[in-house]
Amino acid sequence: MNGIHLALLGGALAALAACGPRYEGSSEIVTGVGQGLLARFGLDGGSSSTAPAAEATAAPALDMTALAADGREFILASIPSRDTFALIQPAGQNGPERTWLSEDGISVTFESGMLVATRGLGPDLMAADVSGTVAAMRQGGGAATRVHEYLDGNDQIVRFDYSCRVDVAGTEEIAIYDRTYASVKFTESCERGSQAFTNSYWLDETGVVRKSRQLISPPVGYLDTNRL
To answer: Would you indicate the residue range of the signal peptide (predicted)?
Structure first.
């Protein structure tokens, strides 16, 4: 990395470490979730979960001026496998965990930008321990253990331990509608036997997870978030 890239990485890591546990991206979506908000702020298109994933649409057009004037925090969230989008808003804070809620009551909770729970997406991520991932990211990368909890067919909690590797993938300038952000991209590659997945996080210079792609559950797939 050149000097500019190193400075950006250092700034993002310093901000992340200084703030301690913080939430920077959470979301919830299924078909129709948040469509009222999308319509209110200028959605010019949409999609249904019945549409084939291979035909996923581009992000909907939004009235960014109206969003800015509204004054509240928003995240545009999507589940690519269901070809759906939704605007979501913060609903509560519990220590380092922050929950965002859709108009239809679907919720997603993050800790330091890492997904730790969902409700209403089915099959949900009931809980996750991401402390190892958070620590590795603050150190600029390294090994980590991640724990996911899901419900089995008998409504019993089943625990899955994943061995993960967090790496800096480089710096990128990302565009989120009418704004651009200098960011550091982190990847988190996790394995458990034959199971494997990769989460991606884009941190801006203030340590905010401005954009992410994270696994909810194997049947549901990934959750994409863009902090507006």
So the answer is: 1-17
DSSP structural state of residue 31:
T
d(CA 98, CA 83): 25
DSSP characters over 108-170: EEEETTEEEEEESSSS---EEE-HHHHHHHHTTSEEEEEEEEEE-TTS-EEEEEEEEEEEEEE
Structural domain span for residue 61: 3-227
Residues in the chain: 228
Q: Read out DSSP for 175-227?
A: EETTEEEEEEEEEEEEEETTEEEEEEEEEETTS-EEEEEEEEETTTEEEEEEE
DSSP conformational letter for 35: H
Q: How confident is the chain (228 residues) per 10-residue block, as mean pLDDT?
A: 57 57 35 45 40 52 81 89 89 95 88 95 95 96 98 95 98 93 98 97 95 97 94
Residue 204's CATH number: 2.40.360.10
Task: Map tokens 């507006």 to a residue.
Answer: 228
Please state whether the peptide bond connecting residue 123 to the residue before it is cis, i.e. omega within 30 degrees of 0. Answer: yes
Q: Which residues pair with 129 in a beta bridge?
A: 147
Q: Are 149 and 216 in contact (CB under 8 A)?
A: no
**d(Cα 175, Cα 173) in Å, to the nearest integer?**
7
Judged by DSSP in three states, 88 sits in strand
Q: Pick left, alpha or beta for residue 217 (phi over 0 → left; psi -120 to 50 → alpha; otherwise beta).
A: beta
How many domains are contained in the chain? 1
